[in-house]
Amino acid sequence: MPEDMYEGEVPAHKVGYYTDLRADRATGCIGQQDRKVQADHYHADGTD
Fold it and tell me: How many CA atoms lie within 13 A of 48 on its CB side?
């Protein structure tokens, strides 16, 4: 059976429904992007 999920170049062996695992991973990536955008939006002096 071929590996379907990877963390970088390493096969990831996770237990659960494939669609749930994919959705959880996507949600995590979106959350990271949101935090980065928010951090980039605000300057160190508190101005927008």
Answer: 0
List the Cα angle 31/14/8 in 5-degree steps.
60
* Residue 47 in this model has a pLDDT that exceeds 50: yes
Contact 5, 14 (CB under 8 A): yes
pLDDT in tens, 19-39: 898 888 888 888 777 667 666
CB 42 within 8 A of CB 48: yes
DSSP symbol at 33: H
Residue 35 to residue 41: CA distance in whole angstroms: 10
Alpha-carbon gap, residue 16 to 47, rounded angstroms: 44
